Amino acid sequence: MDSEKLNDRWSAVKAQILGYPDVNAAEISAFFSRLEPQAMSDSFLMLTAGNEFIKTWVEDHYLASIQRALFDMTGTPFAVAIAVDPTQEQRQTAQAGAATAAPSPAAAAPVMAQAAGAAVPLAAPATPATPVTAGAGGGLNPVSAVAAGAEPCQVVEVAAPSTVAPVAAPQPFSGAPATPPSPASVAPAGAIETSEASRAAASPAAGSPMDPAAEQPASTLTFSNFVIGESNQMAYSMANEVAGNPGRPIFNPLFIYGKSGLGKTHLMLAIKNYIDKTQPHLRTVYADSADFVSKYMEASVAHDREKASFKNFKHYYEEADVLLIDDIQYLQNKKQCLDMVFQLFNSLTAQGKQVVLSADRAPKNIDVDDRYSSRFSSGGIVEVRPPDIETKLAIVKRFAEECSRNEGFSQCAIPDDIQMYIAENSSSNIRELLSAVTNVLYRMVFSGQSDMTIEGARVLLENHFSGGMSRNLSAEDIQREVENFFKVSHADLLSAKRSRSIAYPRQIAIYLCRQLLDVPYEDIGRKFNRDHSTAIYAVGAIEEKLKKERDVQEEVETLQKILSEL
Ligand SMILES: Nc1ncnc2c1ncn2[C@@H]1O[C@H](COP(=O)(O)OP(=O)(O)OP(=O)(O)O)[C@@H](O)[C@H]1O
After folding, report:
1. Any atom of ligand 1 within 6 Å of the Cβ of 542
2. Mind listing the pLDDT tens digit for each residue in 174-191?
3. CATH no. for residue 86?
4. What is the pLDDT of residues 110-130, one digit of tens each?
5. Among 334, 351, 383, which residue terminates a domain?
6. Ligand 1 pocket: which of 112, 173, 219, 266 to mutate (most atoms <8 Å of CB)?
7. DSSP secondary structure string, 461-529?
8. Is 394 in the same domain as 331?
9. Which ligand 1 atom is at minimum distance from the Cα of 263?
10. ipTM of this complex
């Protein structure tokens, strides 16, 4: 949701509360003006307050009213989180002083999580949509959030709750973990890394713990090197909230879902790494589901000779204060493992211990007993959506800079047009984008092509990309074929006209873009002069028709065939 809409919704909530008989309008005016909305989804609203007093006061006096208003307006129960942003007051004061000169709110520009202890207003970008990379260094406090109502590209560092101690400088993007893991004792199932406390009790295998997918040390995946854009802002905020306040019922469990390579594991390990640094007395356990299953099998087999193996296995997870299980769709059809995860889940959440789960789909679409999926859905659920071009470009830039710095390639900078080429052509899977950057950099450094041109990059990456907007098919190709098929002009297809003869082909074209191009709704909407909600609506409308109307199925199949032959 862009900042303008977010502010509008928040204003509507305030107006709704003012309509209730039991509220004090003066209090609302005094205290609510010190709150800023940061993010909102279908069931979650995140606000920041300028200081601890305002936060606590609003929580004590008006949290229920905010929730009531949201429920009355939407018919859905909402979780509402309030974090402290100590810079908010300074900004509000400064803005009040310079009210007339203040720039308009940011249009959901991608930002890099701010890692410094205090907010650092970043250099104003060329356009409001230009991504921003925040500075490194300093402590990492939850909750960092994009200030929806802040100046363009300003990043706000929200203070850690008072119980959370300040932490050391964030990890570099790649490199040695700050705290070397201790040697293995009992190597339990599926754990990549545990906190200090847990290492003492039961440690995973020795050596640098790696993010298996990205070959980056798990300890280097932090909030500070996660690029925030509209597609992942909500997931980032919720993950931050959990890292700062593990075990709060509204986010327990936290369920993060989305397609492969969108940053779910990064966020889970960022939660873990943050808690390990700020609350080392808590035992955090991260487990990838595939590892969990294989260790479960090992423990079951070993159980015949070594009676304690299964007990040790279970114990390892039971004693977690924070349990993070990645890719749980992998547990579908693995009944015994699933039962064990469910038992762990129930026992930990009942004790107020935090559970974080991730999957490539929403809980309701995981093929498990309804009982399980409804329990998995009982806390915060958030989708990480495919990144838009701006976010991809921000990730390319950050990764290229980090690579150059860490590998000592500082004399080689990837030209802007090549960076844009990579962002535009890579699929939504960030791994593909990162490996394109690595390929280009290595070619520049080791083949003496430090002046690589866009043509050189095209040749080098010819077979690299699996999808993306412009690889084989573009939105323009789809529009053209749909226009020919339905005999609609291009101007009409992009117009505001709503007659069925135009709206229906438009919806089909949008649907095909969603099916055939690996791009987010925002980008598709833009191609049709519309916003992402219209694109979502169009896709939903065609999906409904496809279930019942044979004509529509045939039209879509024919168009897909035409497009596949281009
Ligand atoms: N917003 C982001 N900012 C910085 N790096 C990112 C971002 N999103 C993803 N990445 C990087 O992309 C790579 C893939 O991300 P990750 O492993 O977290 O994806 P995933 O969603 O867990 O995928 P899978 O479902 O396949 O496990 C990692 O190197 C991660 O650090």
Report:
1. no
2. 322 333 333 233 334 344
3. 3.30.300.180
4. 655 543 332 222 222 333 233
5. 383
6. 266
7. TTTT-S--SSSS--HHHHHHHHHHHHT--HHHHHSS---HHHHHHHHHHHHHHHHHS---HHHHHHHTT
8. no
9. 18
10. 0.99
